[in-house]
Amino acid sequence: MERIFYLSLILFVLYLSTAAIAMARNLEEESSGDTEFIKTSCQSTSYPDLCFQSLSSYASEIKKQPLKLAETALAVSMARAKSAKTYVSEMTDYEGITKRQHEAVLDCVEEMGDTVDRLSKSLKELKRLEDGESGEEFWFCLSNVRTWTSAALTDETTCLDGFGGKAMDGELKSSIRTHIVRVAQDTSNALALINDFASKH
């Protein structure tokens, strides 16, 4: 009797182990599929490597949902824009800054503020589509998202234009440009993913 009990216990443990391994394998395959979805979707953007790098860590939340992918891309872009705005704001006290550079920095801070505001509006509007907006309302929301995201991209370009010309060359321009270009690339990718989502409807 005792032997039968131990044999049953061993079989039960083996069953649990097998089930756990199968579950882990399924989760791994699902995770791999979610990551592959992001990688494939990012091919439609201007900066596919950056797109995948920025979004792959959110694979388990995005799964294979184009709307969630676009929302996440917008959220990443907005967070990057907030960080860049803070960085540029700190450059007003840059050592040796000229009057023209100071004006360009202030203008850039304003542009980045507009960028954050527009990306925030885009994200809120895109989230409305989760509630199942359809027909004319769907396309109205989507049009707003595209308009605001495109305008945010223009703001970022305008910031960089303020540092045009050789007189503005130097470490200040270079460091600001690095931050703003990254925001612009993320915003461009987000817009491409929004358009990709729209093309599926």
Instruction: Determine the mean pLDDT.
Output: 88
Shape annotation: globular
Number of strands: 0
- What is the C-alpha radius of gyration, as a whole number of Å? 24 Å
Q: Label the CATH architecture.
A: Up-down Bundle
Percentage of residues assigned to helices: over 70%
- Give the oligomeric state of the chains in this entry, treating copies of one chain as homo and distinct chains as hetero: single chain
**Strand proportion:** under 5%
Number of helices: 7
CATH superfamily: Invertase/pectin methylesterase inhibitor family protein
Please give a quick description of this structure:
Keywords: Signal. With 201 residues, the protein is mostly helical.
